[in-house]
Amino acid sequence: RIAVDPGVFVPRRRTEFLIRQAVALAPEPAVVVDLCCGSGALGAALAAALDRVELHAADVEPAAVRCARRNIGDRGEVYEGDLFAPLPGSLRGRVDVLLANVPYVPTEDVALLPAEARVHEPLVALDGGGDGLDVLRRVAAEAPRWLAPGGSLLVETSERQAERAARVIGDSGLVPRVVSCDELYATVVMGAR
């Protein structure tokens, strides 16, 4: 169970597919980073699925960080700050699984979201910039320096953005792959180092 406070992004059922992909890729023990962690749902779910994990999570929103700290508890560390900035430098080159549930809604489409999202969730958790890939570009550019050899970046995106998201990840030097689940209407783009 994941507690979600007012003003914190609500985890979506489709994100279960991202977690399944991460579990399949994770070695044991695994070093896991959950960027844009929101409530901490992804990191908490992965930590629950793996026997041995070193978990680090980060978010720029103070309300999300407080919520994630409660949900993750003593299973990991949660940091407040922008993407990789608050993470300990000792993680560079050691991350086996990098989860980044980045905002991917194009700015002009945010107004079209259901009220439960656009009214009650923070804009920073939804708005991915002009084409929806601005935050992904920043994550992908830094990811190779943080990933261990054989480590993977996993991001959720929309079906229509998947090809462009895969190119962004490929341009960073990672080997991209796109997987989808029709049942959960989920699309995940992975990049392996």
Describe the structure.
By secondary structure, this protein is of the alpha/beta class. It has one domain (15-192): Rossmann fold (3-Layer(aba) Sandwich), CATH 3.40.50.150. Helix content is 30%, strand content 25%. It is built from six helices and seven strands; from the N terminus they run H-E-H-E-H-E-E-H-H-E-H-E-E. The protein has helices at 15-25, 41-49, 62-72, 115-118, 134-146, 162-171; strands spanning 30-35, 53-59, 76-80, 95-100, 147-157, 175-181, 186-192. Strands 3-2-1-4-5-7-6 form a seven-stranded mixed β-sheet, with helices on both faces. Helix 2 links the parallel strand 1 and strand 2. Helix 5 (134-146) packs parallel to helix 6 (162-171). The radius of gyration is 15 Å and the shape is globular. The model has no long low-confidence stretch (mean pLDDT 90).
Gyration radius (Cα, Å) is: 15 Å
Q: How many DSSP H or I helices?
A: 6
**H/E element string?**
HEHEHEEHHEHEE
The structure class reads alpha/beta
Distance N to C terminus: 32 Å
**Mean pLDDT across all residues, rounded?**
90
Largest sheet strand order:
3-2-1-4-5-7-6
The low-pLDDT segments are none
Which second-level CATH architecture applies?
3-Layer(aba) Sandwich
Helical percent range? 25-40%
Q: How many β-strand stretches?
A: 7
The percentage of residues in β strands lies in 25-35%
Just give the CATH class: Alpha Beta
What fold name stands as the CATH topology?
A: Rossmann fold
- Biggest pleated sheet: 7 strands, mixed
